[in-house]
Amino acid sequence: MPLFQHDQNGITQTQQNLGINGDKACGASCILCSAAEFGTYAGQPNDSDAKDVYQRIWRGQNDESEVSKIVGILSGDFKLKAALIEDRSKTGKSGLRALSSDFDNAYLAYKSDVQGLPRDRRAATDPFTEADFDGDARLMLVVVLPNGLTHWVLARRWNGSISVMNPDGGSEDTLPGLVAWMNAPFGTTQTIGAVDYNFAGIVLRVTQ
Length: 208
What we know:
Layout: H1 26-38, H2 47-57, H3 67-76, E1 81-87, H4 88-91, H5 101-113, E2 119-122, E3 138-144, E4 150-158, E5 161-166, E6 171-174, H6 178-183, E7 190-192, E8 195-207
Parallel strand pairs: 1-2
Antiparallel strand pairs: 1-8, 3-4, 3-8, 4-5, 5-6, 7-8
Helix pairs in contact: 1-2
């Protein structure tokens, strides 16, 4: 199956009348690209559909997307399964939450949102493995920008390596060391689409 990309910034012009800047439409872009790659969404992901999805998953205008709503759209609209995986060393109180109250508050809001969803909370030294990509799985990763804001990127196994789509620009990078970076301590950055990110330890694994 081919890979798809979508630039979240493309929805900006279509939403000006609503006062929405489109800067947090990354979840919508990852949803549509995953569905397109699994064949449950027809054609190239476009700005109009991304806008519609974005408006259904946000918590508030220009605010973060809610994971529960992302899971609901993946399953309801596109007949895909989504499973949450967490690295407890990063999401626990001694992880990135200890670095700032902003991280702690964001995690508590996330935890409340996903309360009804099953979570695979892994405590192993290397919680993520190449096997997480088995079954053509698409991994939506929560990453952290240098300014502390969170962002979604989409990782898949492709031609024997790992390819990552960054909705901020709709770029595609081959990153064979992605799993090692996911298992590295917070503060270890990875460049994806010309932006340096940290990994927040949260993954939404999408399968058919």
